[in-house]
Here is the input.
Amino acid sequence: MTQTIFMVGARGAGKTTIGKALAQALRYRFIDTDLFMQQTLQSSVAELVAREGWDGFRLRESMALQTVTAAKTVVATGGGAVLSQDNRIFMRNYGLVIYLRASANVLAGRLAEDPEDTQRPSLTGKPIVEEMLDVLASREALYQEVAHHVLDATQSPEEVVEHILQILSDEKVK
Ligand code: ADP
Ligand code: MG
Here is the structure.
């Protein structure tokens, strides 16, 4: 069965990087819900949050998630998509959910080096490591709950992709 593969995890976990590489390896379509929203709504995440607040953003994110879900598609979800129970149920029902797991230190280190991700406004205004600690503390259980598989996101992207391909081939023979 061809299904949707959902990448979940905090900012910096590698959802976009790994999702793209995985899609390429599988010849699947790749979609980033943040990017999809930016393109369809003609505004950045920051603009959207400024205009509609986080609740408005989350509502649009849920709609985007459902819109992009299709066979032979890898979806990189927004880091907070798991906060919605509807989103968690949706992803578990419609696809294979992969949690890319890394420590707050690793995530913060990556984000500090990645200017692209500064587009997303800080949730709290705190230093990035503290923010990542808070984010993981409040979301770790949700990531674990929604995930069919939890992967070590501190491995190289190639290793993580290889691991997911192995999972997919194991599922086929079951
Ligand atoms: P996300 O989409 O989950 O926010 P990204 O894919 O944008 O994460 O990755 C964030 C940053 O971390 C990027 O600079 C990316 O190159 C780097 N990165 C992602 N995955 C890995 C990895 N497995 N090992 C090392 N660096 C990585
Ligand atoms: Mg991303």
